[in-house]
Amino acid sequence: MKKTTCMNTALAALVAGGLLTSGCASSRSGTNFSRDEALRSQRTYYGVIESVTAGKIEGTKTGIGTVAGGVLGGVAGHSVGGGSGKDIATVGGALAGAVVGSIAEELTTREKAYSLTVKLDDPRVFTVVQNADTPFVPGQRVKVLETEANRMRVQLQ
């Protein structure tokens, strides 16, 4: 009974840690800014959308899904069989859970994205990949913001 309580406590700690760290991801949006970008100047360019290609930004691979999946799989495996079979089931469950947890983390944190090619009013052309939180169409006038770190984002004008 004590072992199950300890495993449940560890699982709760992992889930809480995952929830706390999931808010640490940086924004890849055209309209959401990080705290570091607040009150800082950004270069602003104007132009026209040349092309829009839909895609995805890969999900995170922090290891939280792997660990949580491993713990859940180990707990599930531990509830099967008896004797040395129980040990094998625990290890097998932990390994399978870790793989499934890793895949689940990456899939659930993927984001829809656009690859936006913008022809600026000067002769330059930029392509920026960002979240698909704002719809864009070719021919649309836009504003391109560039930070000191050369991060760019496209916004409706």
Concise structural overview:
With 157 residues, the protein is of the alpha+beta class. It has helices spanning 2-22, 64-78, 84-108, and strands at residues 43-57, 111-120, 125-131, 141-146, 152-156.
Entry keywords:
157 residues; alpha+beta; OB fold (Dihydrolipoamide Acetyltransferase, E2P); 2 domains; 5-stranded antiparallel sheet; 3 helices; 27% strand; elongated
3D architecture notes:
With 157 residues, this protein is of the alpha+beta class. It folds into two domains: 1-27 and 59-109, no CATH class; 31-57 and 111-157, Beta Barrel (OB fold (Dihydrolipoamide Acetyltransferase, E2P)). Helices cover 39% and strands 27% of the residues. The chain is built from three helices and five strands. It has helices at 2-22, 64-78, 84-108; strands spanning 43-57, 111-120, 125-131, 141-146, 152-156. The chain has a five-stranded antiparallel beta sheet, with no helix packed on it. A hairpin with a 4-residue loop joins strand 2 (111-120) and strand 3. The protein is elongated.
